[in-house]
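> Could you send the Dolichyl-diphosphooligosaccharide-protein glycosyltransferase subunit OST5 prediction when you get a chance?

Sure thing. Input:
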Amino acid sequence: MAPPAKPITSPVPDAWYPTLAVFMLAIGLVLTASFFIYEATSSKRNRSLAKELTAGGVASVFLGFGSLFLLLSAGVYV
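Output:
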């Protein structure tokens, strides 16, 4: 006989959702701002594709997870 199934729970406590949303969105916005400053101040000869992709990717991850936790803290379970 199969054991009874356990309900699915979040690995992160619900009380942490707003805090995680604020911190991740703040970090993502700071990284996005640094990316734009890098693009505006560096010449075309001094730009590095790897640095651009790294900065953009990391900012995107933080903004994505920040948006996810913002939706979760607002009660929109995605």
